[in-house]
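REVIEWER CHECKLIST
Item 1: Sequence provided? yes
Item 2: Single chain? yes
Item 3: Sequence as submitted:
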Amino acid sequence: MSNQDLNVTAKLINGGVAGLVGVTCVFPIDLAKTRLQNQHGNDIYKGMIDCLMKTARVEGFLGMYRGAAVNLTLVTPEKAIKLAANDFFRQLLMEDGAQRNLKMEMLAGCGAGMCQVIVTCPMEMLKIQLQDAGRLAVHHQGTASALSSSRSYTTGSPSTHKRPSATHIAWELLRTQGLAGLYKGLGATLLRDIPFSIIYFPLFANLNNLGFNELTGKASFAHSFVSGCVAGSVAAIAVTPLDVLKTRIQTLKKGLGEEVYSGIIDCARKLWIQEGPSAFMKGAGCRALVIAPLFGIAQGVYFIGIGERILKFFE
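Item 4: Structure as written out by the authors:
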């Protein structure tokens, strides 16, 4: 295996390990974000803490990790693609890797964002259905008479009203809608992930460069971690309105009285009219709390070089 192949393999391992560790740590907050973004008003959850407490009380501790299996399965290729693609485009577009070129860094981030949606879109499609199932159960308890008329994922089978599984949802979507069913909301995902990457990667690179150590040839773990957290928080909050639209569009099963959206513009229009401009920032705090440590851990692992160490061990 050539040095270039080893380098790519190490990057993929780093991205995968970082994704697994990060998701395990912050998944309950991500679940709260999804439920807060999907609810109309504050009829069920008053905020992140209230959501997590009610979820733990009603569904148990493991209820806060509903949908985590999908994320843990697919986050490895997703994060690996995102981080490796950004490095690939940076090396391709920048003649001197050490030279700061904001335009090229933003273009590299754009490329990384476009690449990752191959995995991100179906992953979040399945994850959102599982995360929101608990909120819908509470919603339907208050509207039991409307249970029979509430929408199912595809066929209206009673099993989907209980505890849907990722396998069942994926199979039903593939059977009834084909591959396009798993990629519903692809446009909204691209609108969120491309701007996120354009903001995140250049900001991280410049923040991390401030802690560059000439002796070691890289920034310290602590500096990389903090840089990842800061860049992740800024990028996450900046694209929260797009994340809200994506979540609403990708949620297949709706509660009584909740809107169905035909696309991004329709969703934005209805959200603005019915819930006001503040609705576009639903879950912003949760999102920052999820993304900050997630990307802090990712960049920390990446710069420690766990992938390189693993490959060296097996040489």
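Item 5: Key structural point noted by reviewer: The CA atoms of residues 85 and 270 lie 36 Å apart.
Item 6: Recommendation: ____
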